[in-house]
Amino acid sequence: MRIRKYDFDYGRRALLEKTAKGAAAAGIFAPVWPMIANASDVSKAYPDELMSIEMFTKGKIKTGDTISASNVEDAKELLDPFTYNQIKNQGRLIKIRPSERDLTKMYPKKWLEVSIKNKGQAVFGPDGNVYTKDGKTWIGGAPFPELKTGAEALANMSLCWGKHDYCGHAIRERSVSPAGDVDYKYEFIKVELQITNRLDGTIFQNKKDLLRAHTFAFAAPAAQEGTSFLDIWHYDQRKFNDLYGYLPDFRRVRQFPTNQRFEPLIPGVVWLLTDPWGAGDPMLTWGNFKIVERRPMLGPFQGNWSGSKPNWDHPTHGGKKGTQFFNAEWEMVPEMLVVDFEPTGYPRAPVSKKRAWIDARTGNYFNCGRYDRAGNPWVNFELGSGQMIDGNTVWKDNEGNVEWSWHYVHIYDVQTGRISLIEYKPTVTGGHKSELFADPEVIYNKYCTQEAIQRLGKA
């Protein structure tokens, strides 16, 4: 045990000082990234009270406890305002788990290896995009593993959302009314195929001007079956995406305007294309990136995959009928970045800014809030992530390593009280399955062209 050399509030003061000075990587006593690269215990980088909720709250809350309306004031300083409101007023509960000290568990193994290999080679070019020092498109992994600025944090989030060359997410979504009624249900596959910034060191089909292909293909209910959207990302983050949709009623593919990013794709949901992964739009169509705060917080970074449950079902609670929120475990994070950014490329955007909460140690975000034009809280997009372990059930990659991905998503509209709940599923209607490795040519031809989404709609 470390002999205490600092008073209780030293850690918080140190984080405030880092925010004021700017351009400081994660860690107080020592930089965090070398510890991650060497699989060391990162608690050596922080004072004890920033690593323990029991110490931080002076014994009022400890590991294993549940935060509820009865004790949320004791944890208010550790919560984002959206989550605080959900616990205080909507009956949400959060269980506290031990903090993970081996941060290699917060990445897919291959992603971490490539990030270590390529560290120090990323720069922002004159056009604001990320390149290697010799001017090539980024070569894989986190371009800025030691976050020092808000722009670096958003670049890490934007260039490869899922930290894999391919992510196929089979999804069930429920949209819940303020009365607790599940009034919309959907099943779909969400595909993310990296074209550049691939971990295998290649550029898919030599399309170096593109970043990724991103597809939603809806399989249920019958009214939405066959509806598909293809979102093509350019590598140049100043360019707006090419968005195509196949609507069975019209039996054709049509191209959608840029402002479709701020409108729901389907009825009843509260999420927009701008929301996924906290960085749903090209990075440079947003701007004024700023770290406004560094602070200890709670976040859902491990322990929320339901892989041992039938169909990976995730229990719910809260609200008027117990349907409002997923059960979730959160843990203490000693240094969280609070990053603001504004929609500089969308003059008619209904959003004044977004605010993202990002683990300074890993670059993993867990929450991003959307604020309306008047600056009032509107919608937050909360994502639980971590290793795919649930008791004795473990999802491993094709090399036998424990997989990592998101576990659940809450999208809560604080102004209307509606919430969309998104669950990871092994499969959904139509035979679409969750997988984190596949032949890119097969995936591209099946999901990632205009012809593909038309075929999906007619299947």
TrEMBL record:
Domain of life: Bacteria
InterPro entries (alphabetical): DUF1329, TAT_signal
Family matches, as Pfam families: DUF1329
Name under which the protein is recorded: Uncharacterized protein DUF1329
